[in-house]
Specification:
Largest sheet: 10 strands, mixed
CATH topology of the largest domain: Pseudouridine synthase
CATH superfamily of the largest domain: Pseudouridine synthase
Number of strands: 12
Number of helices: 5
Number of domains: 2
Radius of gyration: 18 Å
Length: about 230
């Protein structure tokens, strides 16, 4: 497949200032260490749009929407939107069990959102594992149930802060890790799904130049052997 064809599969939106991309699960956002980790989203896009620059990342196993800037000024403005929490992101995930019944879930608000506040710290000896720890960075996630099944639940998540592995760590911390999560789920939960069941499905923000409100979505394309009723 040509570079143009590879890039075309990923582009959701393109204008003179930025691209919105739909990253597949299993593809790195940027190059990793070693010759076997050079294929990544940024390189595939830069083969066709050489001016593009990374603004933020998704974990390798997470799929969904990601932004790349087309100039240094666009990168600066988009990065500022992320830093000031003016980019609104929503994710979909399938977690084991029924987290809404967990005693650790707390109480939902009027719209069904639960909140997890748990400071996140890199476990240096087990890196890249992150843990909930008093010395970690303050971290907050919101989640709500979309569809509940007997053994797993489809949830929507909103990261209020943006820590590494935040959503995965927070759901694991209340006893409901994501299916296919090789870092934070026990082996029997990992084995249920061939991929991490986490997808960045919406992005919304004001255009960094025109200030027009922009919204993007990418439907999930996963196949789960044991899904909730959807």
């Amino acid at each position: 497949m040509s570079p143009e064809e590879l890039a075309a599969q990923l582009v959701v939106h393109a204008d003179e200032h930025f691209l919105v991309l739909n990253k597949p699960s299993g593809l790195l956002s940027v190059p990793g260490r070693g010759p076997d980790k050079q294929d990544c989203l940024s390189k595939r896009i830069q083969a066709v749009y050489p001016e593009t620059l990374i603004v933020h990342r998704l974990d390798q196993d997470t799929s969904g929407l990601l932004l790349m800037a087309r100039s240094l000024e666009a990168q600066r403005r988009l990065s500022r939107l992320f830093e000031t929490r003016q980019v609104h992101k929503r994710y979909l995930a399938v977690v084991v069990g029924q987290p809404q019944q967990s005693p650790l879930a707390g109480t939902a608000d009027a719209e069904g959102w639960y909140t997890i506040d748990g400071p996140i710290l890199l476990d240096w000896e087990r890196r890249p594992i992150h843990i909930i720890h008093p010395d970690g960075k303050p971290s907050r996630s919101r989640w709500r149930v979309m569809q509940a099944g007997a053994d797993s639940t489809l949830i929507e998540l909103e990261p209020v802060t943006g820590r590494t592995h935040q959503l995965r760590v927070h759901m694991q911390s209340i006893g409901h890790p994501m299916l296919g999560d090789s870092l934070y789920a026990p082996a029997e939960i990992v084995a249920i799904s061939p991929r991490l069941m986490l997808h960045a499905h919406t992005l919304a923000f004001a255009h960094p130049f025109s200030l027009k409100e922009m919204g993007f979505s990418a439907p999930v394309n996963w196949v789960c052997p044991n899904p909730p009723d959807m």
